[in-house]
Amino acid sequence: MPLIPLHELPTKGINYSRNYIDRLIKEGRFPKPVFLSPRRRAFVESEIDAWVKTRVDQRDEVAA
Predict the structure, then answer these.
(1) Could you please report the per-residue DSSP string of 1-64?
(2) CA pair distance 62, 16, nearest whole angstrom
(3) pLDDT of 22 over the 80 cut
(4) Measured between alpha carbons, how far is 64 from 61 in angstroms, rounded to an integer?
(5) Neighbours of 14 (CB within 10 A)
(6) How far apart are CA 15 and CA 62, in angstroms?
(7) CA 43 to CA 64: how far, in whole Å?
C-alpha cells in the first residue's frame, strides 16, 4: 500500500495549501492521513486516486 507525503500531492494534481487540505480533512471531504510520526503524515495512494476519480465522475455527471 503505497503512501504519498503531503508535499507530493501536486504530482496527483492536488495543488491545495496545507491549511486547505486540513480543513477538507476536518470536514470529511478529503482522505485522512496516516501519521508516520507526530509531525510527519502521508496519504494512502489508492484513497487519493479514488478521491480524484470521484471529482472527475461528479464533473461528468453534471456535463451529461
Answers:
(1) --EEEGGGGGGGT----HHHHHHHHHTT-SPPPEEEETTEEEEEHHHHHHHHHHHHHHHHHHH-
(2) 23
(3) yes
(4) 5
(5) 19
(6) 23
(7) 31
- Identify the residue whose cell numbers are 507530493: 8
C-alpha cell at 55: 471529482
Q: What are phi and psi of 35, to 5 degrees?
A: -85, 120
| Tens digit of each residue's pLDDT (9 = 90 or more) over 24-53 | 999 999 999 999 999 899 999 999 999 999
Q: Which grid coordinates are listed for 64? A: 451529461
Paired with 44 in beta bridges are 3
